[in-house]
Amino acid sequence: MSQNKCVLLVVDMQNDFISGSLAMKDCPAKQDGNHTIHVVNKLTSLPNWDLIVYTKDWHPADHISFVTNAYKFERHEESTIDPTSAEVYDKVVFNVDGNQRREQVLWPPHCIQSSWGSELHPDLLVANGSHIVTKGMDKHVDSYSAFFDNQHLQETELRELLQRNNITHVFVCGVATDVCVNFTVQDSLDLGYQTYLVEDACAGVSWQNIEVQVKKLVEKKANIIQSDQVSAELEKLHNDKTTVTVPCNHD
Ligand code: VGL
Ligand code: ZN
After folding, report:
1. pLDDT exceeds cutoff 80 at 9
2. Is the pLDDT of residue 167 over 70?
3. CATH 3.40.50.850 residue ranges in the chain?
4. What architecture does CATH give domain 6-61+111-239?
């Protein structure tokens, strides 16, 4: 038997990103998350995943990333934009928690804990035995990656979950390609996992940014793959008898 073990990470396929306040179809790239749902469902239906994990952006109502909350946080002297007049997509710099610098892109309020917008989209298949990882609960720091917050101050339980399941290969899909998917792929690569971006199973915010970020991921040795190639890749990995090292295992 091969020692290769593969996880599918389904990033933030929640109502707000599909049809709610931060719907991908209304973002500059105009990519429809409804289409993404069906591609993702085909992926989760493949029989040979060793683990499937869904992530949820899970913010308190007073979160720093919401444009409507910007005026409540202190402006850092380096911020070129005044938080009291800032708009969606503006990047502001805040001073939080006793003089800590926080660069923050502002978004419409989204994925507020336990709201309709924070629920996984009803058309999304939730695989038996899968896990859910939440992120973005600290009001003072955003968390695009499913592994760490944007400041790398805190870690979610994702890495431990992957370690417990002896995962060697990480496949990532979901939204947004250039935001949470991108940061999750980056951290997965940095943690030493062989990492795949399933390109057509994603939808993103901005074309220019998608292009820039995907190019960077390729430079970092991410594999860009299309959804119809995943089944054959899983089979190949599971039949591969060469010894692999499992990253980040402490035992
Ligand atoms: C995301 C913007 C703000 C994402 C989350 O899931 O990509 N984007 N929060
Ligand atoms: Zn968010």
Report:
1. yes
2. yes
3. 6-61+111-239
4. 3-Layer(aba) Sandwich (3.40)
